Amino acid sequence: MRDFAKKNYKHVVYLNFFENPDYCSVFEGSLEIDNITMLLSALLGSEAVFEPGNTILVLDEIQECPDARTALKFFHLDGRYDVIGTGSLLGVRGYGKEPKSIPVGYETTIDMSPLDFEEFLWANGISEVVIDSLRKNIRGVTPVPAALHKKMRQLLLQYTVVGGMPEVVQTFVDTKRLDEVLNMQRDIVRSYEDDMIKYANQKDKSHILECFQSIPKQLSKENKKFQYSVVKKGSTASKYAGSLQWIEDAGIISRCYNLTATELPLDGNAQDDVFKVYMRDCGLFISMLEDGTQFDVLQGNLARYKGAIFENLIADMFTKMGRKLYYFHKNSGLEVDFVIRYKGACTLVEVKASSGNTKSTKTILAHPEKYHVNSAIKLGDYNVGKSGEILTLPLYMAFLLTEV
């Protein structure tokens, strides 16, 4: 954000309300723009130059100064200066200090995710030309050349353990030292846990931590449906649902909802109370597991838990491209990892850490009159091809499934 401001504006006025709580006093009285700019000029001296059309005001950690968020409306109406505010999701979603008035209609909200796999590829020197060539392989159902296929498989495994937190990715690109990567990731996880203590109500703090720390156990089960009894023996939704919602609002997890039917619109067939939970960043998920897991992922030595890791990887990719997550499970034994809208059709997506069978997918495709599905994709450790009616793609191509 600061880099963008410096590149696009003649003058940048930067305030960080967390580092300097005294800045909040500027917004405690009149929110008339001339008054605010006058006080900032007095407070910051030569660092605060307000030139109409050429100045941007950057309000960092804006959740620490709710009145500054209210002031966004008046900056918008005044129109002389552009403003960017940044804050934690928790801080601006009602878990922190409340502003006197939320500037509805006067602010554009952008939720920032960690880097997605495509951005990770850019960071590691993979050009748009290469990515476009992979798109052509999908469209033509032609195998990726062996050398590129090997390189992309390697980068995918690296992304699985590194994830997309910007500072973590930069450290990996600069040093290739996974021990440093792991230490940074665990620091981030600890900061999440600190936020849980900072923003949560006293009575909810332990429940939130228990929900968060149960995620690896939830995904290790054969049936990965989130179960409150796994959080703590005898626990129920009435006791823990609010805590899980808190973690989701913090942008840490994504829910994947079970469908009652494999039909469009998917959201209309989703069960709100039956879902799986994935970490929004696969690298942070790996860091929550025991030491040595990074090495095991890179070597492919994960046995049964490999499926959970690669499912979380695909959930990471789909979530960061803006897809809501759905799956299909019936007590009869039918289960498909993900269901997406792709090229205007309801499409099954199976994630295979090894060769694996696709019995459920084949059963559903064999009965289109019952399940209303005619297309399926299998993602795994192989090249582009067709297996009967199923399009087979390497796992690293999941980020290219953008057509809805």
TrEMBL record:
Stored InterPro entries: AAA_14, DUF4143, P-loop_NTPase
The keyword ATP-binding belongs to this UniProt entry's keyword annotation: yes
Occurrences of domain AAA (ranges): 1-121
Gene Ontology terms, MF aspect: ATP binding
Source species of the chain: Mogibacterium kristiansenii
Transmembrane helix is among the record's keywords: no
Domain spans labelled DUF4143: 193-354
Name of this protein: ATP-binding protein
